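Lab notebook page, bench 4
Experiment: in silico fold of construct C2
Operator: M.H.
Input chain length: 217 residues
Purpose: comparison with the prior construct
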Amino acid sequence: METIANYLIKNKKNLGHWDSLLEEWILSIERFSRITDGDVPYWYNERANVGVLAAAAWRCGRIALEEFQYEKIDVSANEETDETSQEKWMGRCDLWISDDRSEEIIEAKFKWLNLLSEKIDAISTDCLSAAVRNAYDTRGNDEIRAIGVAFLPVYAKADKVGNVESLENIIAKNIIGTQKLSTDLVAWCFPKRLRNHIGERYNNYLPGVIMLAKVAK
């Protein structure tokens, strides 16, 4: 049994330069699972997942800064007067990544996905849309590229899956499904060491994580 991991950059114009970043993201998750021998970072929360992406940025030769103060702007139009107003406030940016050629700010969201749910596409899209909206507000009037990222760890009820072979089929089906969503990229990692792990609390398989990303425009 090998790790199920890969990525698809659907919009090369927007995120084609993320190739090395995604490769390191996958390798970082696998290394974490190997060294901890029974744990993975994506089980935890949004901040933990942002940290792994930041680590991947450093590992591929970029620099990164997490959770720092940043002025945000909510640009909204008044339908009655046709005037545009700007509300500013000091908030926090989830992640900034830069190299010699470019820089970008990233806003992230985190949501557990039930692999057996019929609403998985809608839930995934809503999570990514919220991240993109936050990225748009964080960018404000700046010229910097802003990206929304959705971290989507997945689970499935063990008593409904049936067996490991069924789980593998369910994973494959959902990976194909997420590739059809309106995103700039899709990446996934289902580490071999933890793919068949069943959580003690809810009797769920907790096999892996899917990441979606889209540039805010």
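Observations: The first strand starts at residue 4 and ends at 9. The beta strands are 4-9, 63-78, 83-98, 103-110, 113-114, 145-157, 185-190, 204-215.
Next step: discuss at group meeting.
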